[in-house]
Amino acid sequence: MADEPEExxxxxxxxxxxxxxxxxxxxxxFQLFLVAWAVVAGWNVFKPLPDGTHVRGExxxxxxxxxxxxxxxxxxxxxGAPVVRQQIFDSMFRLIGDARxxxxxxxxxxxSQRGAMLxxxxxxxxSSELRDALLARKAAVPGLKVVVIADPxxxxxxxLPSKDLAAxxxxxxxxxxxxxxxxxxxxxxxxxxxxxxxxxxxxDGSGDPFLPNPLDxxxxxxxxxxxxxxxxxKADHRKVIIADDGKGGMTxxxxxxxxHDASSLNSNVAIRLSGTALAPLLESELALARGSGWxxxxxxxxxxxxxAPQPEKAARVQVLxxxxxxxxxxxxxxxxxxGDSIDIAMFYLSERDVIQALLGAARRxxxxxxxxxxxxxxxxxxxxxxxxxxxAAELSAASDGAIKVRWFRTxxxxxxxxxxxxxxxxxxxxxxxxxxxxxxxxxxxNLEANVAAAVPPGAEIATTxxxxxxxxxxxxxxxxxxxYTSDIGAxxxxxxxxxxxxxxxxxxxxxxx
Length: 513
Prior knowledge:
nine-stranded mixed beta sheet
């Protein structure tokens, strides 16, 4: 049978493929960008930690006489005037004055920025006090090795270089700005985008200044790049000074306080101690400095160890940083039960493992007391109470009132303390330093440094810390008309909307706590 004739004008072959449209290419590029964003964000959440982080020092038997608790407490009289008792920086300046071989300092806030508090004279110009103390000691002892490690916030992330740090560098003091890009990202959604885009064209933050300074209400302007870096919401949050003691030994302080003018009225706590327990923290600080571009080969002299104390006069001291702080806190809370007590004084409390450990301790019969900052004051700005007000309501309700909460009565300043203490029949364990109990602080994102110690229950330092906490809790121990704390009902927020907002902010890192 003959083939049927083809119809004229019809080509039986398939039409050639159409070239991809611009819209299709645009979709593919956008999809590739989203994949790259997710990969960069994920990698920087889980990437290896830099040297000098996640430190768990050896437990060192240290004489109780070499471990001291210090506190700054600010309250107000019935007329609203501040009543201030301070110990921390006076002790630190004495430590600086005794150093003969080296001083290594690491501070989150070392500046005179004032936020919205320009009309209020600071209690102390702490930044210039520390600057002048370091300059004076370096001039008196020219061979003294001084290393100052600082967070980039003190230069407003490159937007406004610090005159204080410049003065130290001009005097021959080594000043190191920590390279925060090496740390993991607590705010991965934003930071992944920033690393892919803004980091490359906004530079080091030193571009044209045309935006308001986020840290000070003065006339100075900063660049877009400075703001872009700020929104990564991570920090070298440590507050540490380590020095030789002038006699061949090692001494230092680990604290919650910053040499920051706007923070000079804050309530804070610190531990001053001597001995080789500090050695891992010194090694950590120097590793962080070298990872941030400090190439000095200097090594500190090996400290002379302290005489071994008798067991009943010994503190078992350990330095902890970053995630090791969470591990130690949770472990000690989980070990508390009937007959034990837990006292926590904290600026921020939000980390979920810690919250579950507190609820578990209360269920086992431990007595739990919390003194929290109401999260309402931030350098002249008013905050909304997240996370503490939601967490307080949750802990009280979930424990049927067994967990007791009081609020420190702030008057524009902050209850900036960070202390956890667990008392059992056998020992009194405590830790203090820079770390709030938040995901950002104790889950290997920020740089943090704490000291932990276990001492006999009747040790003087245990009595001192307990008396300080009781004074605040019971509104006793000072002039009779002072009130340090108020009942939970003053600020607790049971709102589900606020609670889930806190949980979202904590989980995503889209927050400053």
